[in-house]
Every structure is written in structure tokens, then in C-alpha cells.
Amino acid sequence: MLQSGDAVVLYSVVFGLVLLGTRSPVWSCGLAISVYLFLAVFKFPQVPDSRARQVLSRGTGVASGLGRASSIAHRGGGHDAPENTIAAIRQASENGAEGVELDLEFSSDGVPILMHDDTVDRTTNGSGPLGQISFSELSKLDAAAKHRLREKFAGERIPTLEEAVEECIKLQLSIYFDVKGHPDQAAVALGDLYRKHPVLYNSSIVCSFEPKVIYRMRQTDPEVVTALTHRPWSMSRRGDGTPHFASPWKHQWMTLLDILLDWAHHHLLWKLCGVSAFLIQKDFVSPDYVQYWAKRGVQVVAWTVNKDVEKQYYQEVLQVNYITDSLVEDCEPHY
Predict the structure, then answer these.
(1) Please, which residues have CB within 8 angstroms of residue 13's CB and are 6 or more apart in sequence?
(2) CA-CA-CA-CA torsion sign (125, 131, 134, 139)
(3) CA-CA distance, 276 to 45, in Å (whole number)?
(4) Hey, how many other C-beta atoms are within 10 angstroms of the C-beta on 41?
(5) Residue 259, Cβ neighbours under 10 Å: how many?
(6) Which residue, 227, 94, 113, 114, is CA-closest to 173?
(7) Predicted model pTM
(8) 281-310, pLDDT tens digit by residue?
(9) Which residues pair with 178 in a beta bridge?
């Protein structure tokens, strides 16, 4: 069931909007009841809290009451080593990370690989969209070509998802699988991995900005721990706060959509998907925000925390996990 506060807000909003549009209390009640029945039938329950805590508190002592948050290396720690590579995973482990966040994408021939972008241009010495490059071609690229430490990591290649997972298991790192899209394809690939490596049920979490990805993953395997990822105002503004659109009317329209999307994330989508964590851009995290989610059995994870003073705040005050580009030094903000 929805938390009582969420239920009141949700059904009041539905009732009010329909009443405003139709001036019919009957239609308003009918639609509010329909929303309630939809959630009752189609929502997924959260995985047991004890197992979610085991995943999210892996190696930190938080579950035992010691109060230490996890530091998760963003894309394996893209400041310290070439992002989404085996070298990054090893470097993150060496630097003391409790886990790594890894981006799932696919080659043109359907091989699950680690890559953030839908092209290879930004991080490799190649060019072109992933959808047009086979894995055999991808394996020839230098994944360190554009990195600031390219000489140290020269020749590092793009790994398959399975290679990365096996390395993380060996190093006892937790994994945050960040799924960019392809809900059906990703659910199949991840489902196969969980069956092959059951340890993942207690050491990994599947995350996405796209609720349909998480819902499809729960359909495929409801035992997988999942999270929604969100940045408020992402449709109308860039990460640094500047507007996406020069047109005032388009900016206002996108702002309205942002408000609706944010409301849906906080009152509807999290419950529909049955998530155990909520990954939120760091500037929106506060003690009250952490408590809001804690009351719903959801843990907050902040991204991307790149300053030492911020890390201390998350470790000592908020005591929530954070994702960072570097385990060894301050680096530029990442939105």
C-alpha cells in the first residue's frame, strides 16, 4: 500500500484535477479509485528491507549501526582512471571505494558492454554511434585515448558487462548498474547475469533515469534490488542551472513538465516500481529529504559528490551513500 500521506496527496490531486476539468464528482471519484486499483494490481513490492540494506550498506558497517556511508566510484571513478573500464574498477578498489557505478550499453551486435554515451567519440580514439559498431570493432579501440592519464592507461579496452561484473565480484565491490535505455534488452542481459552470479542479489542494484527500465527489470526478476535516478528540473535546465531552451514558452512548458515529473517520482513511480533506493543529484539532498525517503523504506544515494568537504558531510552528518568521480582528490562538478 501507499504510505498514508502519499495516498492522501495522490488521490486528492487526481480528484481535484478531474473535478476541475469535468466539474463531475462522479468522474473524479471514479478516476481516483481507478488509480488506486491500478497501483494495487500493477505495483511491485519492495525487496525485503534487510536485503536492500545489505546491498546498500555493503562493506560499510551501516547495517550494524556503525554509521559509515559507502563511497561509490562513478563510472568506476572516471577522474582516477578511464571511465567504465577494468582499469577503473581496479583503481577504485585500490583507492578504497566500497562499490562502483557502471553504465550498461550495447554494441550493434547486441553484446552488453560498459559505455556511458551512445557514441564512442568522447572517450575513445574511435568515432560513431554504438548502434553501428560491432563488438569486434569496439574491442580494437583505446578506451583511455581521451583521458587525462591516457599515457598511464594506454591501450585499455572497452569491457563486456560480464568481464566487469566478474572483476567486481573478485574485488568484492558492490555494483550500481546504470541502465541508459533498452529496457527489454537490458532486463534480459542483467537477468542472465543474476542467474549466473547469484551473489549479485546481495551486492548490486539496478538504477535508471527511466522508470520503464526499472519496471521491466522488476518484471523480469522481482528479487533484484532497484533504484530510480532523478535530477529535478532536468528537462528545463542543464546541470549548472542554465536553461536548455532560449524560447520562453518552451522553457515554461518544460518547467511545467519538470514539476509533474518530480511529483510523479516522489509520489507514484517509486511505489509502482517498488524501488529500494533513490539516486538524486547532490544539491537537492538535505536531512529532511533523507527522512522523507526513510519513512518510505527508501535509501537516498547522492551524486556526484566531488569535493572532500561534501564527502565529509555525507559521511558524518547525513550518513548516506554518495557517488563520486574520484576517491583521491577534489575534481570538477559533474552533473
Answers:
(1) 263
(2) positive
(3) 10
(4) 7
(5) 14
(6) 94
(7) 0.89
(8) 999 999 999 999 999 999 999 999 999 999
(9) 103, 207
